[in-house]
Amino acid sequence: MTKRTFQLLTLAAWLMLAITLHAQQVATGVVFHDQNRNGVRDPAEPGIANVLVSNQTEVVRTDKQGRYRLPVGDDTILFVIKPRGWQVMLNENNLPQHYYIHKPNGSPKLRFPGVPPTGALPESVDFALVPQRESERFTAAIMGDTQARNVQEVWYLAHDVIRELIPNRQIAFAAVLGDIAFDDLSVYEPLNGVMAQIGRPWYPVLGNHDMNYDSPDDQYSNETFERTYGPSYYAFEWGRVSFIVLDDVQWQGQRDGQPGRYTAGLGTQQLTFIRNYLRHVPRSNLVVLMMHIPLWELPESERQQLFEALAPFRNTLSFSAHTHIQTHRFFTREQGWKGERPHHHVNAVTACGSWWTGVPDPVGIPHTTMRDGVPNGYLLVEFRGNQYTIRYKPARYPDDYQMNIYVPDSVPAGELANTRVLVNVFFGSERSVVEMRVGEKGEWIPLKPVQEPDPAYAEMKKLEEQYTLPGRRLPGLMNSPHLWAGNLPANLPRGTHVLTVRTRDMFGQEWHDRRVFTVK
Questions:
Q1: 127-394 falls under which CATH superfamily?
Q2: How many whole angstroms from its chain centre is CA 423?
Q3: CA–CA separation, 181 and 183 (whole Å)
Q4: Residues in contact with 496: Cβ distance below 8 Å, sequence separation at least 6, in sequence order
Q5: CA distance 472 to 461
Q6: Counting Cβ atoms within 10 Å, is residue 104 exposed (0-12), middle (13-18) or buried (19+)?
Q7: Nearest CA-CA partner of 508 in 390, 392, 404
Q8: 23: pLDDT confidence band, cut at 50, 70 and 90?
Q9: Integer Cα distance of 392 and 379 in angstroms
Q10: Domains of the chain: which residue ranges?
């Protein structure tokens, strides 16, 4: 090697080091008890030890003085992981302010604005916490896609779903499982104001309709989401439950003149964050994942890495939305699950139902029934320590409206044995028991699962074909995943009868409904 070559190589090495040092800095800060709740660390406000802080990859604990150190690049979001018994500051829309965005140059120019330039890294990036009473028994309201395409649909959400949650002081917090908006991200502002009326913190999940579609790649596809809500994946703790919010939507920008598209996926950085966070979680905790695209749509290799990270935990649960149906999956060793018990994944009902479609009701809100025959609504998840119970709540219907029963109004006596009863149990799963009986003293007859379209939904689609109806058209037919069927008893006398159906779910919750019919 000549002297000149050595000098050039040395200069190149120094340049690379300078570039690295410029792009990679070390953030320091304090997680502190905000005694006067002003969001700023004032003199004498103490730091809080053993609180987790992340830079979207690494996860560290604060020291005895509440201090932490983490490396940051020029596109990093630092966030504190809310610990049990504490709460982060909330903004005027009850959104957690648990993060600091470091983008010195801001977001690239996009149709919907992203993060403005944040400038140089502050000397100290501090996170305020305030103590809160936090029982091991609490309830969360969890809903799939609110997916408002315009302000009119924001008001549908307000009058149809949110109005029910405003007086419910039993709810600790709410979560929206992605597709908060429907491509028009300017809807965030009015929608956030409506969600705020719940009066509790609410946690946003990124969906495929929450992205900047004019981004050239995945890196810049979440800029408006980040400006509005902060990191697209993060964690928080409540009671004995550790919640992990995932970003499982990856944006593929325009290529060779073709429009952009999205795929399901987590990526290496997010999987590293999950592993690093779970190392700090007590093994006895319940670990709950909240994502947009269902777990079964993740690439096999990533799903297996996720399962590997969750393997040490006996108690796990996950939620998704995206499909606009309601269904359950139980992942076992056959699907690569490594835990002692199957992993329960709930694909939740959406707040918008079938994208706010269907004929408007007398107050102007579309009925927006989902393709599986389920009314739009939300889930109420009750946590007791590291255990849980889930109840489906249809919007603007009574709590006990949990099924539809289909049987003809009038049945010829000679056709009884061939007359089918069909029951759609809206939150039914493979672990549900569904039975029917005729009369008060009739024998309980078990019903069997079947795969076919919901009859009422099929009839609504038929009417759309025959007539020009108000409202947007409903999506196409599908086989509902929670239908049960059986035949009427053959020996019923002529006259009017009451058919009773009861169902018991995996949590031991029992629901009853009835339908009147005549034998002639």
A1: Metallo-dependent phosphatases (3.60.21.10)
A2: 27
A3: 6
A4: 516, 517, 518
A5: 12
A6: middle
A7: 390
A8: low
A9: 5
A10: 127-394, 403-519
Quick one: CA dihedral 324, 330, 333, 337, positive or negative? positive
Distance set, CA 321 to CA 144, 173, 281, 349 (Å): 5, 18, 26, 7
What is the torsional sign of CA 361, 365, 371, 373? negative
User: Rounded to an integer, what distance in angstroms lies between the CA atom of residue 128 and that of residue 55?
Assistant: 17
* Model pLDDT for residues 290-334, shown as the tens digit of each residue: 999 999 999 999 999 999 999 999 999 999 999 999 999 999 999
Average of pLDDT values for 167-194?
95
Which residue's entry shows tokens 């393997």? 311
Element spanning 464, H or E: helix 455-466
- pLDDT tens per residue, range 97-122: 999 999 999 999 999 999 999 999 99
The closest alpha carbon to 249, from 234, 260, 259, 264, belongs to: 264
**Two structure tokens written together for 23:** 């792009």
CB proximity list for 420: less than 8 A, separation 6 or greater? 407, 485, 486, 487, 488
Answer yes or no: is pLDDT of 271 > 70.
yes
Burial class (CB in 10 A: 0-12, 13-18, 19+), 7: exposed
3 state DSSP class of 69: strand
Quick check: pTM over 0.85?
yes
d(CA 112, CA 120): 24
**Cα separations (Å) of 394 from 315, 324, 352, 386, 469?**
27, 14, 11, 26, 24
Cα atoms in the 13 Å half-sphere on the side-chain side of 243 = 26
77: enclosing H helix or E strand:
strand 76-80
CB–CB of 351/376 below 8 Å?
A: yes
CA distance 69 to 72: 10
> Are 302 and 265 contacting, i.e. CB atoms less than 8 angstroms apart?
yes
Q: How far is CA 117 from the centre of its chain?
A: 30
| Contact predicate 200/175, CB 8 Å | no
Tokens of 338: 């490594």
Closest CA to 438 of 520, 517, 499, 508: 499
Two structure tokens written together for 76:
């990093």
As assigned by CATH, the class of the 403-519 domain is mainly beta
Q: What is the dihedral of CA 145, 285, 128, 125, to 10 degrees?
A: -90
CA angle 393, 398, 401 (to 5 degrees): 70
2 phi and psi angles, rounded to 5 deg: -80, 165
Q: How long a stretch of residues is the chain? A: 520
10 Å CB burial of residue 74 (0-12, 13-18, 19+) is middle
Number of H helices, E strands in the chain: 8, 30
Q: How far apart are CA 118 and CA 56, in angstroms?
A: 18
